[in-house]
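Supplementary Note 3. Input sequence used for the single-chain structure prediction.
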Amino acid sequence: MKIYTKTGDQGTTALFGGTRVPKHHIRIESYGTIDELNSYLGLIRDQDIHEDYKNVIINIQELLFTIGAILATDPQKATLKSGKARLNIEKISIKDIEHLEHEMDQMNENLPSMTHFVLPGGHQTVSFCHIARCVCRRAERLASALNELEPFEPNALIYLNRLSDYLFVLARKLTYDLQVNEIKWIPEKH
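The predicted structure, written as discrete structure tokens, is reproduced below.
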């Protein structure tokens, strides 16, 4: 199988179901940003972090492929003529969302309470988490805009919201684990 198909040379691409749309279509921007986020998560997973974090990230990466597939499916062609769903895969479940919440709760147990915003950085691994968090927020904004135009499974959008929170808590936990100074943002008063 060749990687290059030349079908996108005129600035369009195909959704699941065959519908062709411009490469700048909000649906393409949405799942493209999910792909970007997934790549940053791979970068975090490649760092020298605890195996438990790596396993959670692998699970997240797999679920991001699911969300990408949901977003890449033309809603008008989501159901086959036979009545079956075009995407024959597990969707995002409440359990997936609760898993992120559980992970955050566990990490938060050992963290000092937050009294101020914190500046991203302090260690390369922590910085990668903050970058991934920002990309996740962008993915969520794009997916939210797409959902207003063409609604899709609500749990996918909820998962993205929870994932950005998870990445923030992971950044704080890695700051703690790596014994890095967490710099609080304390604005100067006039």
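The helical segments are 26-45, 51-71, 94-108, 124-149, 154-177. The mean pLDDT is 91.
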